[in-house]
Write a structure and sequence with these properties.
This protein is an alpha+beta fold and 364 residues long. 25% of the residues lie in helices and 46% in strands. It is built from 7 helices and 14 strands. Strand 1 and strand 2 form a beta hairpin. Helix 2 packs across helix 3. It is globular.
Length: 364
Amino acid sequence: MLVVNQAMRSAACSRRSTCSIAAAMHRRTNIRCGPARLFPRLIVGFTTVLCSVPAMGAEDNPMSVLETPLELEEKATVDTAHEYVTSKVQGSAQWFDTFFDDPNFIAEDASTRLRVRTDAFFSQKDDAKFSANFNLKLRLPQLSRKLNNQTSLLLGGDETLDDLDSSESDSVDDALNDATDDPTIGIQYFLLLKEKYNVNLTAGVKLSGPSLFVGPRASYVQTLSNNSLLRFVERLRWYTDEGWDSRTRIDYDRSLGKRYLFRQTFEARWREQRRNEDGFRLLFATSVTQRLGDRQAIAYRWNTVFKTEPHARADSTVLLAQYRQRIYRKWLYYELLPQVAFQDEHDWKANPGIKLRLEVVFGG
């Protein structure tokens, strides 16, 4: 009878789960399985070891088990500080680019926006120039869902798709000449839209001609220090009437406190249509932008352009100040851009001028 009772008790002990046995051993709970205690305790010890082996092997990095709470807290603090610094530097540059309606920033924005702009330019050695254009970027949510990526419809002048920043051209006059008013329609498809990376593909038609075009645009942002970053942009496009058009741009941004941003820009552009007249068109632009308040800011710029054909030469240099103010709600702006240009076509004599701009911006 004693043997039967011991057998029944041993069977009851064997039906307990491995993890329950391990937990019981950890709490030093006495397991009574009859007089023959040695054999059941050996089984308990063996199963406890087996239960602990998978838990150790489940970790991809065994060294992470050795991290103390203090080390984990320090890592979290470092990650939080890095995110704060990154957002601080990029936030400063983004505010200025948004306020000045920088085309390079707008080209990476997938939201709906409308801009209507009128310009008037006067200079001592050139004829007065007037221009008016509108640019519409319309987000297409239905098509975006079907393609699983952001997609926008683009309408307006050629500048809509040219990423041309008139304030960073060799002169305001040349900027007005380059930013043509040819009506254009296109589709912008964002292949990659991340914090550091932005890749999109644009295809469309210039209605004057007409001329078809297609090409990718890619950008990458790298934080260098607590108050500086580097931005790289490459845009390649092919036109049926003009051939290839390549533009490479590098921006170095440095935050100078809460109200100032320093930017050094290098840009190289090559157009197949003008390969014999310009070769590579190289732009070196230095600017310091000052935030005067929530409604106004001013940028001090010095831009110099070199061309490599028909021989390497400096083509022009210009000093200008770009004052921009929001005068009504969040959508009506005006700008004053006084400048002094020195150009090869005018024998490097001073050519003072000024541009007046009125602009309406919705969305964005």
